[in-house]
Write a structure and sequence with these properties.
130 residues, alpha+beta, two-stranded antiparallel ribbon, 2 helices
Length: 130
Amino acid sequence: MRYELSLASETFTPAVEAFDRQMLSLLKRMRKLNISEGCVSLKISVSLERQFPLDENGKQQEIYVPRFEHETAAQIVQKAKTSGEINEDFVLVLGADGLPAMYYRDTDNLFDMVAEKEAGKDGGENGSDE
């Protein structure tokens, strides 16, 4: 008997039925929780095992035995998002230790920061508490 390699064929009936159950469950949860987005996925992993059975004459025949594993997953998309901006007048410089540091632009001017870096200061010794 020949089996087709199509999701619509009997070969993959267990995978398709699992997908259908996952879809129905997802839709019920989405409706119950009043959520507008979700997704269902079906993953089919395929492996081939090489075997050498003996035929009726005692000769080895090379065959490949396919193995299909399926996995379904459902996900409800719930987003909790906040956004904002930190809009300070910072300048990013590298200190003498090579690590980045941020300074207010009005505390030191850019030329002073470059001069301090070249002199080996990290910029934290200028007495500024800002």
